[in-house]
Structure formats: structure tokens, C-alpha cells
Specification:
Blueprint: H1 2-14, E1 34-35, E2 39-42, H2 49-55, H3 60-66, E3 80-83, E4 87-88, E5 96-100, E6 105-109, E7 117-120, E8 123-124, E9 133-142, H4 150-155, E10 174-178, E11 184-186, E12 197-199, E13 203-204, H5 207-213, E14 222-226, E15 230-235, E16 238-243, H6 247-256, H7 266-276, H8 285-294, E17 300-304, H9 338-347, H10 354-368
Parallel strand pairs: 5-14, 8-12, 11-13
Antiparallel strand pairs: 1-4, 2-3, 5-6, 6-7, 9-10, 9-14, 10-11, 15-16, 16-17
Helix pairs in contact: 2-3
Length: about 375
């Protein structure tokens, strides 16, 4: 029922008439339709997608969607990893906090005419979905106390009545309580659950991210939780499409690395045509449909003013990517520089042993376990 309601809300948004993205700017505030730039990097010995996600301010499903052909635990030395750090802004009013559930991403329009702050988030798991709609921040707390609900204690009788501030608190260090009872934007003591459907409905953030966001959000800030898996917007003379896994698809992608493809709906086709405006004839529909089937979650060029974009003519420039991030310059906290690790790997083996793979997966899966 909830998924049906979410789809109905999105269809209502699509049918609401001309969208802000069609015009390429907003009357006030930040005028661009995107934030950030795409990046690539070559994987090194110690890389996993879950760790790279945190390093680049991404969530797990977000980076996995962009790299569906890679093993998330052992991408392999030298493997090209797409770092999807360009985001088309959701097609809603740019004010306060906007949370797009399919993206599992939060946007905070708190910087005037400068780019919004944006962070990956963890959202409600199946059966305990994060609610959609508009609300406000009603209370702020440093050092929140986590009190399991009756349902949680019934499912897990070993849970205490309350968990006070400290490293075992699932809410982390800071909480922004919403107008919806029992829902908040907060930190976590399980950071590798960010970018996944793991919570009981609250919005989780990396510990370092909530510390940055918290002081910028006063009580009364509006919060808009939306469901927009398909986003289209003009950037200069090019129209881009960003297709994210749906909330349901993200569960399959997270668990198996694959999901059942969905075709464009009539409402989504109408939305894309509406954003294209008078350049509908320039749209590359095969590329659009492929982007929707694959749902890599990053912008793909699907039209250019006055030019018919074809798969043969502009495939290399479908995604604008910055120069690869040189892994040799990266230092991992608590580890040797990547170049040193690479040298050690070459002296021994160029890939992880099966025992090491099992240990890495086990450690990551243990870190995913939740108390809420």
C-alpha cells in the first residue's frame, strides 16, 4: 500500500505542470540544477565500495548502482571505479531540507545563492518506511537518548529501556527531531548502514555529516521528504537524466547486485518531455530508456540544443567525468599510503585470499547489524 501511495504522489508531481528544471534556474537562491562533479579512480588493494562510499560522501547503494559490474568487497587492483558525486537537484522548491528517498540523499538549502549541502542517508527498511510529505524541525538535541519503541522491545526483549549518550547509542551524537512523532534526522553508531534501508523510519547520517549539518538547521526549518527516482534538468545547452533505483529496487541491488528493470511510465515520459520543452525532437530516447533500465544514479546527457544526440555521436561525453583521482596520493586513516600497500600486495599476492574476503564481508555485515 505504501509503495502504491508513493507512486501516486510522484505521478501527481509529474502532472503538476511545467517544472522548475525546465527553466534551468530558480527565482531566488542557488540557480544551478546540479551540485558536484563526476569522478573516477583506479581501485587499490585495500579498497571496498563501502569504504569508498564514506570517503566520497556517498551511500552504499549509491556507489554500487554506479558500479554494478564490480564486486563491492574486492573491486580489484586497477579497476575503474565511478565516483557519482554530481547530483541533479530534485525538482521541488529549494528551501530548507529536501530528502529524496530513492537517492537516499539529503539536500540542505542553507547557503543562500551558493550550492546546498548534501549528504547520503540511511532510510526506513521494508515495512517501516520513512514517511513522505512536509514537516519541520521541532527540536534539536546534542547527546540524544534513544528509547526503543514497544515494537522494538517486543521483537528484541534484550533491548534496554533507554540508551544514553555514548558509543553504543544508535542515534549518534546529534538529533534533529521532526514534527512527525518518533522520527528524526540523526547520526549513527553504525556508519556502514548509510545509503541503505536499515532504520525503523528515521533518517540516519554519517557521524561526521550530522556534526556539519546540525549547527546549520534551526528549529522551524521546513523538511520535505519526496520520492523522485527520475530527475531531468538542463545544464547549459545539454539536458541530463538521472535515474535512481526505486526504493524497492534498492533492496535487491543491495542484497544481490541486481534488480528487475522497470520501463518508463507514461507520467515519466510526459515529465521528460516537459523538461525538454521546445527541444523534444532532440531527445535520445534509446539512451533515456537504457538509463532507466540500468539506474546508475548519475547524470547522463540525453539531448543537446540544436544537436541530435545519438549513441554513435556522443557516447564518450554522455557523462562528464573529472580526471581520475590518483590513489597514490590518498592516505587511509590507520593504514599505510595506498602506494605502499600496492607495493606490498605485489610482493605477496595481487588479490585477497578467500579467507580475507570472508573476513572482510563478515566484518562489514556485522557493522550493518542494527538496534533500531
Amino acid at each position: 500500500m505504501r509503495s502504491v501511495l508513493k507512486k501516486a504522489v510522484f505521478q501527481a508531481v509529474l502532472a503538476a505542470g511545467l517544472t522548475s528544471a525546465a527553466f534551468g534556474a530558480h527565482a531566488d537562491g542557488y540557480a544551478k540544477n546540479y551540485v558536484g562533479d563526476m569522478q573516477e579512480r583506479k581501485a587499490v588493494y585495500e579498497d571496498t565500495l563501502v569504504h569508498l562510499a564514506r570517503e566520497y560522501n556517498l551511500g552504499f547503494v549509491e556507489i554500487r548502482a554506479a558500479n554494478q559490474g564490480l564486486d563491492p568487497w574486492i573491486p580489484g587492483t586497477g579497476a575503474k571505479v565511478v565516483i557519482p558525486t554530481r547530483h541533479l537537484l530534485p525538482d521541488v522548491p529549494r528551501e530548507g531540507v529536501v530528502i529524496n528517498l530513492p537517492e537516499m540523499r539529503l539536500y540542505a538549502f542553507v547557503n543562500g545563492d551558493k550550492a546546498p549541502d548534501t549528504y547520503p542517508i540511511g532510510i526506513g527498511r521494508e515495512g517501516l518506511s520513512t514517511p513522505m510529505g512536509e514537516t519541520t524541525v521541532v527540536r534539536k538535541v546534542v547527546g540524544p537518548v534513544w528509547r526503543p519503541t514497544p515494537r522494538m522491545r517486543e521483537e528484541h526483549p534484550e533491548l534496554p529501556e533507554a540508551v544514553y549518550p555514548g558509543p553504543d547509542n544508535p542515534m549518534g551524537t546529534n538529533a534533529l527531531y521532526l514534527g512527525w512523532p518518533q522520527y528524526a534526522i540523526h547520526g549513527t553508531n553504525k556508519p556502514y548502514g548509510i545509503g541503505r534501508r536499515v532504520s525503523s523510519g528515521c533518517i540516519r547520517m554519517y557521524p561526521e555529516a550530522i556534526l556539519k549539518l546540525y549547527p546549520k538547521i534551526p528549529v522551524g526549518t521546513p523538511v520535505n521528504v519526496i520520492n523522485q527516482p527520475i530527475i531531468a534538468a538542463w545544464i547549459d545547452d545539454s539536458l541530463y537524466l538521472e535515474a535512481h533505483p526505486t526504493v524497492d529496487q534498492s533492496m535487491d541491488l543491495e542484497n544481490t547486485g541486481d534488480f528487475k528493470a522497470e520501463d518508463l511510465t507514461k507520467d515519466e515520459i510526459a515529465y521528460i518531455r516537459r523538461v525538454a520543452g521546445d527541444r523534444v525532437e532532440d531527445l535520445n530516447w534509446p539512451r533515456i530508456r537504457r538509463a532507466v533500465r540500468e539506474r546508475n544514479g548519475y547524470p547522463v546527457r540525453v539531448a543537446k540544443r540544436g544537436v541530435k544526440v545519438t549513441d554513435e555521436s556522443e557516447e564518450a561525453s554522455a557523462v562528464d567525468v573529472k580526471a581520475p583521482v590518483p590513489p597514490a596520493n590518498r592516505k587511509v586513516k590507520g593504514k599505510a599510503p595506498a602506494a605502499q600497500v600496492e607495493a606490498k600486495a605485489k610482493d605477496a599476492e595481487t588479490s585477497l585470499s578467500q579467507n580475507e574476503v570472508d573476513a572482510e564481508k563478515g566484518a562489514a555485515q556485522t557493522s550493518y547489524k542494527i538496534n533500531q
